[in-house]
Amino acid sequence: MASCFCVKNTSPGTPSNAACEPNQLPPPLARVVTLALAIAAVLGTGVSAASPGATPAPSPDAYAAQRQRMVEEQIRSRGVTDPRVLRAMLTVPRHRFVPDEYLSQAYADRPLPIGYGQTISQPYIVALMSAEADVRSGERALEIGTGSGYQAAILAELTDQVYTIEIIQPLARAAARRLRDLGYVRVRTRIGDGYLGWPEAAPFDAILVTAAPDHVPPPLLAQLREGGRMVVPVGPPGLVQTLWRITKKGGKLEFTNLGSVLFVPLVRP
Ligand code: SAH
User: Fold this and answer.
1) Ligand 1 mutation target, pool 114, 122, 144, 169, most atoms within 8 A of CB
2) Do strands 161-166 and 140-144 pair parallel, antiparallel, or not at all (unpaired)?
3) Pick the catalytic residue: 3, 16, 77, 121?
4) Cα 236 to Cα 172: distance, rounded to the nearest angstrom
5) For each of the chain's 269 residues, which pLDDT tens digit applies?
6) 130 pocket-lining for ligand 1 (C-beta < 6 Å)
7) Hey, whose CA ends up nearest to atom 18 of ligand 1?
8) Is the CB of residue 267 below 6 angstroms from any atom belonging to ligand 1?
9) CA–CA separation, 44 and 22 (whole Å)
10) Helix (H, G, I), strand (E, B) or coil at 120
11) Ligand 1 pocket member 210 (CB < 6 A)
12) How far is the CA of 267 from the centre of ligand 1 (A)?
């Protein structure tokens, strides 16, 4: 079941190297900041960050402290520091995207089952992919593999042009409803084969593929804008995959290895 998570990286020097220790603790300063922010969140106060570079707290809810810990201990400490991405991870209520029986683990450092043999990805992987795709306000982003809708909601915090495709009909329907209920009304959802992309809405500035194909789908490459970024895990089903960032520059493709991951396979009809 374990899918959509980071596995120990064997290639030194790649961005996710040393980023995958599941129980990695933050450095002492980060722990102090975490505690201060967590207390503030519980007290319901607006928080001014205790140190330069710390992320402001979101509007508090019962899970705000857990989100804060997730961001500090699982994400920032592993090197994802883009303030816009951290802010999005602090804002989106991840507990609304997991089945009730997993509520207590909603902010845990792991993927969780969402039914139909699929999973919501580990928070760190969602943050890493969002940061590497470098989605800017006003840009057009495409996600393949809507699943729970969580990654789409994170993207919707970064830009108002989000398109997402899911092949399993009940998952797609539930995600569309969830996104609407949470106010992410501008996210466009579609039921279908994401391998083919969304040609009518192309080109895209960013494409995130959250299920693993065994090769990079040519239609998605074709739908990437000049200067656009695609983040995609590629590898054989059930085995460790490589997470790639592909940038289109001057009509050429540049590949960056972001480390080893394990996603559910991208299936074809
Ligand atoms: N991004 C999701 C988790 C992705 S799990 C989240 O945030 O919750 C991968 C998802 O990709 C699954 O829901 C699976 O059904 C879907 N998927 C697999 N193959 C697909 C395809 N060809 N087109 C669209 N979605 C696909």
Assistant:
1) 144
2) parallel
3) 121
4) 25
5) 334 555 533 333 333 322 332 222 233 333 333 333 332 232 222 222 233 345 555 556 889 999 999 999 999 999 999 999 999 999 999 999 999 999 999 999 999 999 999 999 999 999 999 999 999 999 999 999 999 999 999 999 999 999 999 999 999 999 999 999 999 999 999 999 999 999 999 999 999 999 999 999 999 999 999 999 999 999 998 899 999 999 999 989 999 999 999 999 999 99
6) no
7) 266
8) yes
9) 30
10) strand
11) yes
12) 9
Token pair listed for 257: 């290895």
Looking at the chain, how many residues does it have? 269
Contact 171 CB / ligand 1 (< 6 Å): yes
Q: Which amino acid is at 39?
A: I
Nearest to 241 by CA among 220, 200, 206, 213: 213
pTM, two decimal places: 0.83
